[in-house]
Amino acid sequence: MSPRSARLARLSRSVTFSACHRLHSKSLSDEENLKLFGKCNNPNGHGHNYKGRRLPISRVLPLQIDPVSGMVMNLTDLKEYMQEAIMEPLDHKNLDKDVPYFSEVVSTTENVAVFIWDNLQRLLPQGILYKVEVHETEQNVVVYKGEETIVK
């Protein structure tokens, strides 16, 4: 295959951010929240060092490597997008108090992944984002691929 032939690749980048939150639903009583969320419902909250792995970029089909630049996407651009979409709004924040999105949405890792997805979608070229993977702990991981709920 010549150097100018189309080559495909997937690209990903990881970031780590620290944030605190309290798992608490306004739709439930204090007793129901405590029963559902246990110690994570502590009124003073608790913190995590979240790790976003395989954040963008990739899609179902790999992207073509540009024959001139040799890149799928400029990593400097990707780093800036992730800084704006993830680090600025979330790093060293109280999710429930500092991030308006979570004033009405329970700050579970699932909803953190949705928040990151929505923010990245606004910045990245259309159709390029494949999935967002957020590690709350070594054992707890959420993968979100932009799926919507099924309307019944």
UniProtKB/TrEMBL annotation:
Top class in the EC scheme: lyase
GO (cellular component) term, any one: mitochondrion
Record-listed E.C. numbers: 4.2.3.12
Matches recorded under Pfam families: PTPS
GO biological processes: tetrahydrobiopterin biosynthetic process
Lyase listed as a keyword: yes
Protein name, per record: 6-pyruvoyl tetrahydrobiopterin synthase
